[in-house]
Amino acid sequence: MFEIDIAGKKVVVVGGGDAAAEVFDESRFAKAVVPPVSNLRELAGDGLFTAFNSEPAWAQAHNVLMPAFSQSSMRSYHEVMLECVDGLCSYWAAQATEGPVDVSSDMNRLTLEVIGRTGFGYSFDSFSAGRHPFVESMTRALSFVSQSANDLPVIREIFGWKALRQHPKDIALMQRTVDEVIAARRHGQSPRQDDLLQRMLEHPDPQTGELLSDQSIRNQVLTFLVAGHETTAGLLSFALHYLSLHPAMVERARTEIAQVRDGSGPLRFEQVAKLRYVRRLVDETLRLWPSGPAFFRKARTDTTLAGYPVRKGQTVLVVLLALHRDPTLWGEDTEVFDPGRFLPAAVRARPAHAYKPFGVGARACIGRQFALHEAVLALAEILTRFEVEPVPGYELSVAELLTIRPERLQLALHVRA
């Protein structure tokens, strides 16, 4: 634990288990929305990910949307997820003979298509058309938001003036696209569906009895489109990277998938939860490379942290990349990819604060089960259909926007007989 100065403010940095356990105490610390996340407010306002704790829109949206991530709701998303994964696999089957595939880019295509179709009944035609204008704008906007968290305004004005002028145009296009989707559904120009958008349009906050405003619905849609696809895309890319290096793990996963599938048809909803080894592969990937490598908390009152005084409102940065590699929690081989760390006995032996890839407390990721189901399903289908091999000479390099992912990850694929 140490203290750094960020833009004139003292920030406590935590990476060890004992201090992290204190910071995760909701009675003493809360989520802090600071750059780069706060820079997204220009796009998504008081969405679930970007809202300040004091803003009522967050609680209202959370109350409305929680049932959308129940087990019964998850079942309704499964078939669309399968269709999206099948679209990826068909695209890859056509590409496989032409050389390595661009895994990082294609995982973004997949996960954006999944959240677009399951959440809002909107297809980006990810595997049948050129890059959608929304995707172009979102990519530029996320890059701008991430970069602007580190740049002084005067530097950005001098050297980044083109991006500075493009950014409002990108935000306007994204917001306009979402407004059109909402309007089409509200006025019956697109079919009614049992999805996140329909829930936000029809279901009031059970505590206040009020429906979400169109502004709030737009903010939530943009939040899910941005955060809901970037995170899972990075997770799947990292997982495929490690699996390309561990063929024995791939074979073990395939054996489990074949046993659970019990036939030649696609995986059914209830079968995905039975893929326990594949789930451990996902969990271990998130240990090494959590989609959000760190997150901010702030002290609710004057308190202490590991015996040191912390003032009310002071920001604490929890570095998950360090916490998830703490040898006192994970052993001395923390850089080794080992799904055995998530066997039930091993999980029970570790303190709960050792592993927090989805955040903590009331503001933890609402879509956790959605992301895990999507990731396990996608990996199972990919490993069933393809041999996955590393490209000679590739060394893992990590790129960071708001989340992290392998940079320029390509893999050689061979369609399995």
From TrEMBL:
Keywords: FAD, Flavoprotein, FMN, Heme, Iron, Metal-binding, Monooxygenase, NADP, Oxidoreductase, Transport
InterPro entries, sorted: Cyt_P450 (IPR001128), Cyt_P450_CS (IPR017972), Cyt_P450_E_grp-I (IPR002401), Cyt_P450_sf (IPR036396), Cytochrome_P450_monoxygenase (IPR050121)
Annotated binding of heme, by residue: C365
Coiled coil: none
SUPFAM superfamilies with a match to the protein in the record: Cytochrome P450
MF terms in GO: heme binding; iron ion binding; monooxygenase activity; oxidoreductase activity, acting on paired donors, with incorporation or reduction of molecular oxygen
Cofactor: FAD; heme; FMN
Similarity comment: family membership: Belongs to the cytochrome P450 family.
Protein name, UniProt field: Cytochrome P450
Protein species of origin: Rhodococcus sp. B2
